[in-house]
Specification:
Layout: H1 2-9, H2 12-41, H3 45-70, H4 72-75, H5 79-92, H6 94-109, E1 117-120, E2 123-130, E3 134-140, E4 149-157, E5 167-168, E6 175-184, H7 190-211, H8 213-222, E7 233-238, E8 243-252, H9 256-273
Antiparallel strand pairs: 1-2, 1-5, 2-3, 3-4, 6-8, 7-8
Helix pairs in contact: 2-3, 7-9
Length: 301
């Protein structure tokens, strides 16, 4: 029994298995300790998250490198086999390979970061995690009108960044332009309506626009883009049924629905206080002509 145990302990295969287990345990311990140190000394949440992901990635690389050293004498005879299987593995795992390439592209290009609101593959949501293979979103919209969370967690392969457009709502300019359309009946006081609506926009969104002027200047310096108007504006359009006022303003991408609610409430108050000078529009129908009617009266008895 002792000889069998001695032979088993000194078996090269068993020794390599024990060495491989020790390598994995050491790398795992180093990675966990490094992540705890980062959590203790790095205060910025986003930076801490990215550093933890980077430590985990290098932990995988280090483990693979050390394991290859442990089994280096066994790999020489597998060179030809690995070359033959390489093409097949690359084809079978092409989605995974492209997803890893997408993760590298995201890390270098900063198309979006954790906390950004994006639209990927037709799905809109806030980025809550960027993994080696997938990006995790907290979905906005779906069956929910507006920009509120639906409660669904969506995981999208990082390969999507090479296949479809990436819409980022909050990267360089964390504000959006939004519009509200208000129909006004023909014959209303249009100048009063324009002045009153513009006053509402200035009261509710004008301060945001003034604070964003510096951010927009940085955008025009970074990209070839025109110097767009940030201040609220009201445009008029004539339709078949009414006069249409389009109210345009900038808004925080997370406050789009609440801001629209406040503006709509103030617009209704303005219309009610106008004492009939401003009337909401309704479909109008004009009767061009009435065909002649023939009435036949019959008397009884």
């Amino acid at each position: 029994m002792e000889e069998i145990l001695k032979d088993w302990l000194f078996d090269p295969v068993v020794g390599k298995v024990i060495a491989a287990v020790l390598v994995v345990l050491v790398v795992f311990t180093v990675v966990r300790y490094s992540q705890r140190v980062l959590g203790r000394y790095v205060e910025d949440a986003q930076r801490r998250y990215r550093l933890r992901k980077l430590v985990t990635f290098f932990g995988y690389v280090l483990a693979i490198f050390l394991l290859s050293i442990v089994y280096s004498d066994k790999l020489s005879g597998l060179t030809v086999l690995l070359g033959v299987l390489g093409a097949g593995v690359a084809f079978a795992l092409q989605e995974i390979i492209v997803s890893i390439a997408g993760w590298i592209g995201l890390s270098v290009g900063h198309l979006y970061d954790v906390g950004d609101r994006v639209q990927l593959g037709g799905i809109r949501g806030d980025v809550i995690d960027i993994g080696l293979l997938r990006t995790t979103l907290m979905e906005c919209g779906g069956w929910i009108n507006g920009d509120q969370y639906s409660g669904r967690i969506v995981r999208i392969g990082n390969s999507f960044i090479f296949k479809e457009p990436v819409f980022n709502y909050s990267s360089d300019f964390p504000f959006l332009w939004d519009e509200i359309t208000v129909p006004i009946r023909f014959g209303s006081d249009y100048e009063l309506a324009r002045k009153s609506f513009l006053q509402v926009l200035n009261d509710l969104t004008g301060e945001h626009a003034r604070r964003l002027e510096g951010d927009w200047r940085k955008m025009t310096d970074k990209y070839l883009i025109e110097n767009a108007q940030l201040q609220p504006m009201v445009a008029l359009k004539i339709t078949d049924n009414w006069v249409e006022f389009v109210l345009r303003y900038v808004v925080d991408y997370k406050k789009r629905r609440s801001t629209k609610d406040k503006i709509s409430s103030q617009i209704l108050n303005v219309i009610e206080r106008s004492e009939g000078e401003i009337v909401l529009g309704a479909p109008a129908f004009e009767v061009a002509s009435i065909p002649p009617l023939e009435v036949e009266v019959q008397k009884r008895g």
